[in-house]
Design goal:
extended; alpha+beta; Alpha-Beta Plaits; two-stranded antiparallel ribbon
Amino acid sequence: MTIAVTRNTPGRFRGFLCSCMLEIAPGVFAAPRMKTAVRERVWNVMVEWSELVPDDGGVVMFWRDAEAPSGMVVRLIGYPKKELLEHEGVWLTLTNLTAAHDIEELRTVSDTDEAPVNDTDPMLPHHLQNDDSSD
């Protein structure tokens, strides 16, 4: 399954994507069985057109790949300008702190010692629980 999501892109992007994918919602395109060669061609065309994308526009395309972090490949053009970081086999999105974040509260939370894990907690997966009922 290949998914492409556009935001504030020139009409040619929508027209082009509609020629090879189904638009399932405004700006959201899906192709359940797009071959790798077709997907690469589609992506390369959008990269060639990327200079036409306004500052607040962009495209994200992603698809399943068992070898990639989080089991999917993610490609971005333009907005949202998110920094993706692969960490221990999963994708993480980095976001800078802004004035809306309470820095002192974040420092307090990060400096707080966590309570020890209670190994009888019913929320833990069964194999991690200390089950003394077998005695």
